[in-house]
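Discussion board: Methods & Data

I've been asked by a reviewer to show the raw model output for two of the constructs in my manuscript, not just the figures. I'm not sure how much to include, so I'm pasting the format here to get opinions. Each protein appears as its amino acid sequence followed by a line of discrete structure tokens. Is this the kind of thing reviewers expect to see in a supplement, or should I convert it first? Here is construct A:
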Amino acid sequence: MKFKLLQSKYLDMNAVFKPFERELATFTEEDYSSLKPLVLEQNIPSLQQKIKEGSLSYEKLTLFYLYRIRKFESDTTLYLNSIIALNPDVLKEARKKDKAPKAGIDDYSLFGMPILLKDNINTKGMPTTAGAIALANNNNTEDAFIVQKLKANGALILGKVNLSEWAYFFCSGCPVGYSAVGGQTLNPYGRKIFETGGSSSGSGVSVAANFAVAAVGTETSGSITSPSSQNSVVGLKPTVGVLSRTGIVPISSTLDTPGPMTKNVLDNAIFLKAMLGYDANDAASKQKKIQPLQKRFDLSIKGKRLGVLKSLLSNSMYKATVDQLKNAGAEIIEIAPPNLRLTGFISILNIDMKYDLPNYLKNNADTTVTLGDIDEIRKFNSQDSLLRMPYNQELFDGILKDSTTLEDLTVIKKNLHKQASNYLGALQSQNLSSILSINNYHSGIAAAANYPTLTVPMGYKNSGEPMSLTFIGSPFSAPELLEVGAAFEQLTKVRKSPENYN
């Protein structure tokens, strides 16, 4: 990794924290330390129980996260550049939650839980920039559909997190986690040493560093699985159509989806359920009801039929994990699908974004945003390359150079879907619960097939860099993936929080 820039030349964190000056002035280090054992690494039911018992409140929980974010992001040796914006009304909203009758609040609910959103998700009262100066004034939008659902289920929107600019479909060869608005996101397990993964870099980093209960990421191909793996958190990329994309800055209407990123599988299931809902404005949205198990998982791995990729068994951690699963009673079926080249995949991204981004700018952006398409954004960036595009905008250039027709694109999509589905065909032909991969190794294939993926911490290299086991399932199998992921999590219990952020 060769960083040209670390700190943002645009963002003023003092201004971001200004709405909380009075409250944070009276919240002491002693207050923070007393709350740490109640909050750090706790799952949602545990937090809800403590609030019902009176040892915690929604306001104190929110203050804890605000204090913690400021504490680390203002430290020159520990900052992570994971936060872009904070909700100025979040403490007022938390106080309202505290006045609600606690007896009616389900422990398995997001009610009162402070949540962070990737900054390509429209949120009323906060800018939605996708990390780009071109959208720096995209301030007055309506809530994205999934944000409406989160609020309806009682979640507190704490703020917006950094990301790889334009969801890492902007510059070529640039560090993941960099945006002109937010600067360079850094990995808490190894600042300036390990990559953060992208493009949901801030989502993964903020969850790992305990800056919120959970965060929303988005994925086109690997943008949830990659940062979840790199930051040792649980990330789910659902089947496209399970969660709405309305109000989210797009790359590809074919492949894009939001998804939950959490510290454990149970929270992931709770979070997913809170975002579910049919959206008539999203052509991919499905009426089919997905009801993830959220209160009780079958935590036994015994009898689960798991597909193991022979090509990955040379990885010692993967091999040891497979052996552990086998010893616990899982049925291991080794598979060796033929090598697959995703020919034409880049054209799906190019041509979809050429049409989908202008559609967002016209229908979902602030009316003061005057840039209407890729070419106008390119020209805007070229006016100040040091601030707006220090790592170039080669992928944006490539969008305009791609001459693939819409007819050609239809053929490419069908071919890739067929090839990727055949690659993962053992899921059906051998009745597998899931196919096991590493990190985001097979995210492109899963995306082309429109299969969901769930990544769960698997361990750490000798260097301390996290690695994850990724479960690939059949379409609309999120509940089954979450259950097998929870069983694996219970069996291994390997996740640990980053040492300098305990």
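Construct B, same format:
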Amino acid sequence: MAVVASVSGLNVAQQALAADLDASQSELLWIINGYTLALAALLMPVGAIGDRWGRKPVLMIGLVAFSLINLASSFATEPSVLIALRVVAGLSAAMVMPVTLSVITTSFPHEEQAKAIGTWAGFAGAGGIIGLFASAAIIDNATWPWVFALPIGLAAVSFGLTAAFVPHSVEHTGAGFDIAGSLLSVLAVGGLVLAFHEGPERGWTDAVTVAALAAGLLGAVAFVLVELRRDHPLVDVRVFALRGLAAGSINLFVVFAVMFSLFLVLVQYLQAVLGYSALKAASGLLPMAAMMMPLSTIAPTIAERIGFRRTLVTGMLLLAGGLVLFATLADPGGGYLSVLPGILVLGAGVGLAMSPSTAAITSSLPEEKQGVASALNDTVREMGGAVGIALIGSVLNSAYRSNIEPTAVSLPPEVAEPVTSGIGGALAAAGRMGADGTALVDASRQAFVDGMAPALYLAAGLALVAAVFTALRGPRTAAGVEAGPDLSDHAEALTESDHSP
């Protein structure tokens, strides 16, 4: 929760950071994205280090570093300093996030793992909502440096509990560390996440976006080729042919693509269209967390009883249904109650789909690879969030610009530019126009509401595709996702299946 809240918390502090640090829009984006980029890129190598050095010491070192860097960030007086600290904070978060899950999967007995993983997934998923709510309350009542108090406090509590209760676990192996695979994984994930972050802002044909995308794709291809030739790879890429891991990865990717993009859409809707404050808008997300957290805890148990495939397909169908409800029922005249049904159904869908997907990924790799399995799970989540924001956000922005264009053409160029850039710019421009701005406010809000529909339908389509894939290729039972003790056995099985009729 501390790691995830550290992302969402600063989103609501952007205006305060811009005013206090004189930060440009580009610098504000890097204050947010520098953290997520470093976190996503380093997850798999650091997860493997945790397996080798010991999960408990890596977790405790990460928690201390995470707390100290966040504390230092609260005293930053220059945007460049804060950006550098956020990148280092992402490194420390990479020491925390995957190890927390691998500690659970290697410490709990098999009969308790499902509930433990479900609890972890529920808190990790709700961390973004809770972080957004707490940070909005802080911004409304204090200065932006206090936003760092929540992740510091959570990390401090976690350190004490880790020292007292987490057992020491380490996998002793004589195999060398996969340096080449680690470096290529950093290049692949880092390049792709950077491209998805920069594409919507700079444009998809910008040199930085194109270079990052090319580096990410080439890194991914090189990673696969190198890992296939190594006796002890960072990740045996052949395990993606396992039904459980493939289904879990695809569904988790889509869940976080939808969830993160929904935060973007829903918060803008509540603030810009309904006129809510930051705190009130964040409060509007709490019903989603209230549905998500308890369902995430019991979803793996449900999957064991009625079947992994049925549980995941039901969750993804609820996810798609919630998005359709949101798109069709959202009405500024109806206020918050018009979007509440969609939010509740979405929360139920995320709760049912998230933790079984996580359990599928971690169960597909043996115990000595749980750090890598947990990092793979987290990487899928980070990649999904980045792609979702880029893809759904781009569709929303494009639809908004198309809808507002008839109004913008009648405005002076210096007013039309911020109006077409987004609903926030349109409302700011309308505020400077006095009574004449009322028509612009109404037009921009309607343009945003109309633009939400194609973006939300696209997200619903992704959820439906994931549901269909799982229905056709997902394992029927929870037992079907388990890989067993030795990856080599699966590699042989997969090779044999390639040659069978």
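Answer (T.O., handling editor elsewhere):
This is acceptable in a supplement if you add a one-line summary per construct. For B, something like: Residues 370-408 form the longest helix (39 residues).
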